[in-house]
Amino acid sequence: MRLVVVGNGMAGSRLVSEVRERDPDIRITVFGAERRHPYNRVLLSNVLAGSSRPEQVRLLDASWYAAHDVEAAFGSAVAHIDRETRHVVTEDGRRTPYDLLVLATGSDAVVPPIPGVERAIPFRTLDDCERIIEAAERAGNAVVVGGGLLGIEAARGLAGRGLPVTLLHLAGHLMERQLDVEAGEVLGETLAGLGVEIRTGLSAASVDEDGVRVTGGELIEADLVVLACGVRPVTGLAADAGLEVRRGIVVDDELRTDDPAIFAIGECAEHDGTVYGLVAPAWEQAGVAADVITGGKALYRGSRLVTRLKAKSVELAAMGETQLSEEHAEVVRFSHRARGTYRKLVIRDGRLVGAIVLGESDAVGTLTQLFDRGGPVPGDRAGLLFPGLSSAPVADSPVLMPDAAKVCQCNNVTKGQIRACWEAGARDVAGVAAATRATTGCGTCKDAVEGIVGWLCEQEGVSV
């Protein structure tokens, strides 16, 4: 059987590796529009901040493709799908046949149609990242347009390079989709303390030679303008082929489009009315699609989203229905703005349906498990927000954490799997990551994995 994958980003590269794990014989060809080998887009803010080098965020290199008999065409964009003959055609005219086709075309950065926008640099790809770094070396100040997750990461990265940064956001507070008003304000105050000026309720009207002019006429001076205005699923290839497209490429529970020979996964796919813009759902979809493609039975039922932000001096986790008020749910809240701390639980029918944790906290692991499983919330609400002050056991302590507890949300890795890797000889985080992929997504579980590995070594008297 011949499998063709269009898109070699985080979803496409994961799909290819998952299929090869299950079937050593299927013929695989993957096309990537970027010339680079696949890399972890989630970690681009670390590259921007200078804490990681580009090669450190790579997912698969050339030796992997050769060793696993996968044909990879980098810098080769697919221009057309011939569904009648089951071929894909690249921009340079290459025709490649398929029995099954997977579209993992991802998203493009949204570029607002305003005068002078060509002077700005979108923050989406590794090429974009390197352009921003080069421009930052010559700049005296910067403006980032967009106060969502990506914009905050861009602003924090530039500020980490010592550049004065102004962050413009149209809504009244940062990350308004994930955070309530107070959490957005606390996050803004934390960023202000790190050298980022926050300006909310403003829309960019034009990008001038000396900065950004906002609606109303004010000019905010900048030598460098970075766009983080959101993303849009890349669906043109599917639409031109006659596949059903709404916001994304419409798929069923097997991740198939309305053509059963064609699948779609990741940011370009729309499942049950939802387009997911985070890595964990894309990787879940890749696993399901790989099962189906290789003859197994699997269904995708949607994902429970946990948004994580972990930059230097900024830690945030937000999940579920964070905007509900006391009229519709039980809300437990704690705020200490002077320390940049905000914690909120949203509980309905005895289950955790939403949470925000801003600032360093041991509570994130326990809350994520409760939210992910939909299990009953313990009666000690304060103990959930402040595990160290509770007389109850800490659920994410390695000693008391059940083997079924999910440690790595991005890769669906449990404590039991980490224990099994350790027993098989993995004595450090690198060994566990190689075997399970834990820590290779957003990276926020690294401390937890280190804790479990260290605890296991201590229990067995193993020196590392």
- Low-confidence spans: pLDDT under 50, at least 5 residues? 390-396
Task: Report how far the terminal alpha carbons are from each other.
Answer: 45 Å
Radius of gyration: 23 Å
Q: How much of the sequence is in beta strands? A: 25-35%
Shape: globular
Structural class: alpha/beta
**The biggest beta sheet, please?**
5 strands, parallel
How many helices in DSSP terms? 13
Overall pLDDT? 90
Q: Which range best describes the helical content: under 10%, 10-25%, 25-40%, 40-55%, 55-70% or over 70%?
A: 25-40%
Give the strand order, joined by hyphens, for the main sheet. Answer: 3-2-1-7-19
Number of strands: 27
In short:
With 464 residues, this protein is an alpha/beta fold. It is built from 13 helices and 27 strands. Helix 1 links the parallel strand 1 and strand 2.
